[in-house]
Amino acid sequence: MKVRATAAESGLRLDVWLERRLPGLSRARVQALIRTGCVRLAGGRLKAHARVRDGLTAEVELPAPGPAAPAPANLPLAILYEDADIVVVNKPPGLVVHPAAGHASGTLVNALLFHCRDLAGIGGELRPGIVHRLDKDTSGALVVAKNEAALAGLVRQFAAGTVGKEYEALVHGVPARREGRIETLIGRSRHDRKKMSARPAKGRRAVTRYRVEATYGAASRLRIWIETGRTHQIRVHLAHLGHPVLGDRQYGRRAADAPVPAPRQMLHAARLSFAHPRTGARLALSAPRPADFAAALAALGAGDAG
Fold first, then answer.
1. Are 208 and 182 in contact (CB under 8 A)?
2. CATH number of 2-60
3. What pTM was estimated for this model as a whole?
4. Which of 15, 135, 137, 292 is catalytic?
5. Is 135 a catalytic residue?
6. Which CATH superfamily is domain 166-270+293-299 in?
7. pLDDT tens track for 262-286
8. What is the pLDDT of residues 80-132, one digit of tens each?
9. Cα separation of 143 and 161, whole Å?
10. Residues 66-158, CATH architecture
11. Of 265, 225, 268, 269, residue with least CA distance to 243
12. Where are the domains of the chain?
């Protein structure tokens, strides 16, 4: 494809100009195309930081995406919504989202590579675009992009805070206030670098809102909304409040102190809402509770908790 600079665009950086003229490509992707010679200019090649001038013509070649490094794996997936741009899954507890040290395979990404036969490529690879994550032992709704345009649109919404994220949690005890807002910094713990803390030496602003939906003696069920998306945010904030999530081995209490057995942290991403990155239509998706969460509720005597 060819693009030509106008007088109004004169003076822009080459990568900024191409990012604006090629919707769906991130700045990093444009820079990679320039670096690998996929952007040809009249008069020769330029660096990403070079300034464009009126009338400059660029020919951009988008190479066919290559295979992703993770291998596809035929793992069960609960699909809440899917089209050519995105897929929303109900992630089960125990499933890691992305391959990493100690989890090279058997992740959600591996499962999506097998399931999604219409990936258009992201960053030059045939891979799903991970926009946000859930901890390994947190279940619930998670949206994934199938192409670069969808990824860019979702990233903008998450950055702007316009994505609705609603969780359910079973916690120790009963909060003194039926509704509340928790705002702290969250950063690495000064005492354990593997943990996050609401009292860090240095951190980032984090905001969590909650409402007590039901109480069961020594435990409560909370509805939770997050305005920011920091690592372990809900778990850290509820522990900071004095009501850690049941089954949370990292931030909670001893298993022996739990009012009912909990095989993992009882935290579930129940609802997710966002604008479709292509159509703009608002999507609101609900993820049914997993069996272990429902079993914990039953053990608490909740009956049909709604």
1. yes
2. 3.10.290.10
3. 0.76
4. 135
5. yes
6. Pseudouridine synthase (3.30.2350.10)
7. 999 999 999 999 999 999 999 999 9
8. 999 999 999 999 999 998 777 666 678 898 898 888 877 766 655 556 888 89
9. 15
10. 2-Layer Sandwich (3.30)
11. 265
12. 2-60, 66-158, 166-270+293-299
